[in-house]
Amino acid sequence: MATVRKLFITNFLICLVVTSIVFGYIFFRQSPNFLQRPLSAARFFQAERDPAGRDSPAVKVSEQPKMPVDLVFKSNGSYDKFCTFLKVPEYGNKAVLCTLDPTKDGNAPILQRDHAWETHLINPTMAALKRFREQPGKPRLSLFDAGCNHGVFTITAAVLGFEVLAIDTIKNHLEVVAASLKKNHLTSMVTLVNRALSNEHRKVLIPVHHTEMADWYDPKTHGSQPPDRLVDAVTMDDLIPLVRTKRVFLKMDIERSEGRALRGASKFFAEIEVVCVLMEWEWVKQIDEDRRFILEFLTDRGYQAYRQPTDTSHLPADNSMSWPHDVYWLKTA
């Protein structure tokens, strides 16, 4: 009887040990830290935590792991209800343009009515792109559309044969751009990214009105926010792997965030030839620190500002407060 009892206990303990090993293995396989596996894109921007469990403040770019290349926006394919045509310079009514609901979005009714947007910028920009492309002995040229909105610059450039990297903070903007690209059979020409451009990897609170500046999200200050008002930030340096060419025309319309974006772009400008920067200057000059920084950043790299990309006389740097609403920075040195 004692022998049977010992045998039973031995078998029970063996089963217990084996079961513990199996469940322990399953548990650690599901753990995010199992074998210190690399951070996923979804976890990359989570705030670091100190030993007490509190969210740390700003996480410096230099402390971050290598940026995952898998930042490409994936459309759900359901934003093709409001489509019209887009006037493309020299091509007539060449492209299909999808918009957000005109009863809910301020820009959509104008696009539906005029079939165009900012033609005073679109036309000279596309003409400049073609001139740069035709320069002999130069590498291919693409457009970096920072703040693409409904994608008028992106779609027009793609129709004209340029590859594009387009980034926007608002997911719905990228959905309609993706719908337009699909209808024009141009999806392969464009890479879409749903992020904010900045010099730090943090969550950004998207402003309600476009004239307001995007702010770092702080739960204590801003409280709970709907998901569509929060977006992760990346630097321009982070996006280098997504740029398809060694030469880029940079268009920036990111509502007062130009200074932050260029503070995270030193490597970008060192590795990629930026032939021109189209910048919305009206908001920049209202932030004196950013205005001074941008002037120094671009002039130190051989750029001068012009009203139009074909102008021969540049705008005087010492009079930048009176510059026009939009300026073209051309590399002259």
Automatic annotation (TrEMBL):
Pfam families per UniProt: Methyltransf_21
InterPro entries, alphabetized: FkbM_mtfrase (IPR006342), SAM-dependent_MTase (IPR052514), SAM-dependent_MTases_sf (IPR029063)
Keywords tagged on the record: Membrane, Transmembrane, Transmembrane helix
Keyword Heme attributed: no
Transmembrane segments: 7-28
Domain Methyltransferase FkbM as annotated: residue spans: 145-304
PANTHER family per UniProt: METHYLTRANSFERASE, FKBM FAMILY PROTEIN, SLL1173 PROTEIN
Name under which the protein is recorded: Methyltransferase FkbM domain-containing protein
